[in-house]
Design the sequence.
């Protein structure tokens, strides 16, 4: 009997140790990834790296300014499209929860969220690149917009559902028109949640490569024209990583460092906002 | 019918995006209009888009960088492989394509208009390998074909030993590395193999992308060079410059005349010592030239002969034609430092003839 | 009121646009792959040949490549994500250690896939090659195993966080009842928590599988891009997503392009079905977001 209990306790401890061990093994790859990116990236990063254009093979001192600007351009363009549409759809879902259309819409959103990003790239190619006859920043940002849309819709819906009905009813009973209630009362009170969602979706799309391969295409020059191809950080990393030139590899490490920093800042800001201005009632 | 409607709705959806964008981007739009009204001579506003072969990418990136410094025209060349260059030109998503394999008649037919090939430089495909001690190997056409057919499996195979009696070869499996994407480098190489090996011709054939009998695929010349560099006991084929810039060893190959030829710029240029046709679409592999390296080829830029299509500006066409001319004249001086063989005089003359034959709305672009 | 009407109409439209978007995606894929569907029929998914020169295109090798990498990744993921979920959901729900581990997971989830691929190519591939040399396997370095490891690292955060949520939903009274009978923590987890959340765990793995199937960049960079049916887990292969990434811009013939789009269509349908089953299981169990918030 006594032995049985001992055995069980031992079993318990072994299990617990195993679980802890397994959990902390995960820290190793994270550490390795960050360690290498930091180690290799930091040495290639300086002011020139951030403000120069890439140089042809064999010349040193190239930078990635075009890719940085391109990344920002792409994510800003896609948010111009996706943020209003996403918020509107999110409001619709939270306002008409029982309607049939809402059910269909939210399943559609879930499916779109699961579509592999490379498929979205093909879609943007067929819809935009082919009819327009050129690779454009626009087509890239449309692909990214489709990817970020579900994240915004869901976060908006989930935030707005938390806002009590009484708030809306109080505003309506004062004679405020419906649209004003939504814009002036409901949306502001859920602002932090929506903002968090937007930032998270930005973090997600700023690292996307697959949909840009045959839409934004890449460009060795600085480009601000929507109707021309544009470079972006993930695209540049992909192209340079496959090259045999050590100078290009170090540029790719540097670009990875910049990209990770960007994604981290976006994620941390999102988390900070979520924590500081939590939707509470 | 319904399908068409939905297709349209997809395009409509994009248009809706466009509309929203144009609201948000009004300032930029007006700026762009301003650009169009500016005098057309301002070359700094013109940018050209090209895509295709990775084979000459380092040379093009150098040439286009210099051209941009001198003439302010921005040329964006993306190395996506020759197959891609041809396809994107047919789709008219680029101003010019780059290819190492002359376009097939059916592809030109698909484009629906005449396409001309402008030779820019010559290159060689070398067999590069990763063996301990980096010995210099001699290979015969037969051995090359057998390795890539997967028939010679180990480095210390009798056939390789016979050719290289002084080299100590390891008893390790050969890792064959080839291109995973459609490429002109593959075309030149497989064109060569098809000429020298009946078995290759019937089993695999020549083309920009193939069904490989064995081996690993890597994307682009850089990818193959990178993979070989990282994989011990591997062999693959890359453009000469990629082997040189990586300090990789490459093989000496027996040519048609039976001579062991080391791939150098000289032996590559010599491979063109045959009569070149007017359209310059010629295969130089397994060349008759006695001193010529057998796996060499021309690389071309491809464009539509009639430049007025879509809503193309005459200024764009003119700048592009000027650039082509510069590439085969002043630009040639950048070939040698980057280990590309410059065009022979005869080929350059033919190229110039082709460039001056380009038209805009039926009229010759350059006098 | 007219402005109210417009506003409601606007909201309604936005929802319609979302639905239309999905339908148009599907129709576009279907329409553009029609050529290859008509030409190859069912043979497209069963034929082993992928020969663009002869226009002889079969996607079987990519199906196998995709399934192998994804399931292998899932197998690697399982112990880790279960362990982490139990760690965070049962052992240390709060406190410094759990915050630390949660941050690690969030950071891992935030790393873009191209960086995973880049890192894999330069750090992981040489390590795996060393192993292959030791075990006398052809030292490709790249291949199915390497991609699965990278994929596993990428999906652990996802599956772990779903499973954690699922196991925290197991009612406390059952657990407390078991504890009061003298059960150890191990026994509670083994006999109460896991059986009670089994379907949720299943859904968690299913959803991560859906993610692994469609992952493109990291896989493309380390899988070796070989269009043959892999012979071992170390051999190079191609997945559906990676073959599209590699060959889409250079598909010269219409049939070739159409076949690539058909691969995209298959990928779209498969991930859609997997995601729908996963979400359905989660919703049916009442683990949906709404009930989660209610419980808090």
Sequence:
């Amino acid at each position: 009997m006594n032995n049985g209990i001992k055995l069980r306790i031992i079993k318990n401890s072994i299990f617990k140790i195993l679980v802890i061990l397994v959990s902390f093994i995960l820290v190793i790859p994270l550490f390795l990834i960050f360690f290498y990116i930091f180690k290799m990236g930091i040495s290639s990063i300086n002011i020139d790296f951030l403000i120069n254009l890439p140089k042809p093979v064999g010349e040193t001192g190239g930078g990635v300014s075009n890719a940085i600007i391109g990344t920002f351009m792409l994510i800003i363009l896609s948010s111009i499209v996706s943020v209003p549409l996403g918020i509107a759809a999110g409001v619709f879902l939270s306002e008409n929860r029982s309607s049939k259309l809402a059910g269909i819409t939210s399943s559609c959103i879930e499916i779109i969220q699961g579509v592999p990003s490379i498929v979205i790239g093909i879609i943007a190619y067929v819809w935009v690149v082919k009819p327009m006859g050129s690779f454009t920043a626009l087509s890239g940002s449309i692909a990214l917009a489709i990817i970020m849309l579900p994240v915004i819709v869901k976060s908006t819906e989930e935030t707005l559902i938390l806002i009590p009905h009484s708030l809306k009813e109080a505003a309506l009973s004062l004679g405020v028109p419906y649209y004003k209630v939504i814009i002036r009362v409901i949306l502001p009170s859920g602002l932090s949640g929506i903002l968090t969602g937007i930032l998270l979706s930005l973090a997600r799309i700023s690292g996307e490569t697959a949909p840009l391969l045959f839409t934004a295409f890449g460009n060795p020059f600085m480009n601000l024209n929507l109707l021309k191809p544009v470079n972006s950080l993930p695209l540049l990393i992909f192209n340079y990583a496959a090259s045999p030139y050590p100078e290009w590899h170090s540029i790719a490490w540097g670009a990875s460092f910049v990209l990770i920093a960007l994604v981290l800042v976006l994620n941390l800001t999102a988390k900070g906002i979520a924590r500081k201005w939590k939707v509470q009632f | 019918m319904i399908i068409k409607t939905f297709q349209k709705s997809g395009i409509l959806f994009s248009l809706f995006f466009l509309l929203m964008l144009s609201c948000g981007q009004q300032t930029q739009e007006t700026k762009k209009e301003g650009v169009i009204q500016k005098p057309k001579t301002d070359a700094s506003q013109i940018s050209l888009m090209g895509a295709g072969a990775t084979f000459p990418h380092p040379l093009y990136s150098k040439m286009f960088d210099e051209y941009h410094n001198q003439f302010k025209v921005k040329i964006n060349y993306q190395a996506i492989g020759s197959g891609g260059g041809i396809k994107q030109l047919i789709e008219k998503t680029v101003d010019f394509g780059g290819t190492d394999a002359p376009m097939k008649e059916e592809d030109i037919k698909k484009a629906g208009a005449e396409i001309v090939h402008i030779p820019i430089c010559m290159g060689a495909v070398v067999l590069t390998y990763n063996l301990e001690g980096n010995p210099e190997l001699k290979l015969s056409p037969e051995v090359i074909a057998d390795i890539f057919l997967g028939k010679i499996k180990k480095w210390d195979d009798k056939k390789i030993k016979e050719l290289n009696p002084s080299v100590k070869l390891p008893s390790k499996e050969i890792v064959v590395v080839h291109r995973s994407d459609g490429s002109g480098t593959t075309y030149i190489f497989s064109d060569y193999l098809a000429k020298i090996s009946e078995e290759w011709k019937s089993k695999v054939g020549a083309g920009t992308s193939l069904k490989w009998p064995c081996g690993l695929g890597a994307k682009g010349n850089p990818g193959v060079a990178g993979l070989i560099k990282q994989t011990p006991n591997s062999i693959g084929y890359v453009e000469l410059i990629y082997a040189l810039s990586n300090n990789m060893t490459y093989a000496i190959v027996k040519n048609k005349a039976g001579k062991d030829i080391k791939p150098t710029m000289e032996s590559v240029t010599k491979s063109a010592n045959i009569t070149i046709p007017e359209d310059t679409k010629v295969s130089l592999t397994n060349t008759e030239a006695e001193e010529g390296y057998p796996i060499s080829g021309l690389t071309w830029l491809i464009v539509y002969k009639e430049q007025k299509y879509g809503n193309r500006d005459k200024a764009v066409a003119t700048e592009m034609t000027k650039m082509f001319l510069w590439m085969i004249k002043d630009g040639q001086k950048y070939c040698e430092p980057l280990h590309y063989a410059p065009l022979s005089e005869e080929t350059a003359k033919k190229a110039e003839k082709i460039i001056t034959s380009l038209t805009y709305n039926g009229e010759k672009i350059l006098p | 009121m007219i402005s109210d009407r417009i506003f409601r109409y606007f909201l309604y439209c936005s929802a319609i646009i979302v639905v239309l978007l999905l339908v148009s995606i599907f129709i576009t894929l279907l329409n553009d792959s029609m050529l290859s569907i008509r030409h190859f029929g069912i043979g497209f998914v069963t034929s082993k040949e992928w020969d663009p020169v002869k226009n002889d295109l079969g996607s079987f090798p990519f199906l196998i490549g995709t399934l192998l990498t994804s399931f292998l990744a899932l197998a690697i993921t399982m112990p880790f994500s279960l362990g982490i979920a139990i760690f965070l959901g049962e052992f240390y729900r709060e406190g410094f250690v759990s915050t630390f581990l949660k941050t690690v997971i969030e950071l891992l989830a935030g790393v873009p896939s191209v960086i995973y691929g880049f890192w894999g190519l330069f750090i992981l591939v040489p390590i795996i090659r060393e192993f292959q040399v030791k075990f006398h396997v052809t030292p490709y370095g790249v291949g199915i195993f390497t991609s699965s490891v990278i994929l596993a690292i990428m999906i652990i955060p996802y599956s772990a966080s779903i499973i954690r949520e699922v196991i925290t939903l197991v009612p406390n009274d059952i657990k407390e009842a078991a504890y009061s009978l003298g059960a150890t923590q191990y026994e509670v987890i083994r006999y109460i928590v896991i059986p009670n959340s089994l379907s949720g765990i299943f859904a968690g793995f299913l959803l991560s599988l859906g993610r692994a199937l469609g992952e493109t960049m990291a896989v493309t960079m380390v899988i070796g891009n070989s269009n043959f049916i892999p012979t071992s887990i170390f051999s190079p292969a191609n997945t559906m997503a990676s073959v599209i990434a590699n060959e889409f811009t250079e598909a010269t013939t219409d049939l070739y392009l159409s076949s690539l789009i058909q691969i995209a269509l298959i990928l779209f349908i498969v991930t859609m079905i997997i995601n729908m089953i996963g979400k359905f299981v989660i919703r049916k169990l009442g683990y949906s977001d709404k009930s989660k918030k209610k419980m808090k």
User: Anything to note?
Assistant: The two ends of chain A are 53 Å apart (CA to CA). Chain A has two domains: 3-44, 66-276.
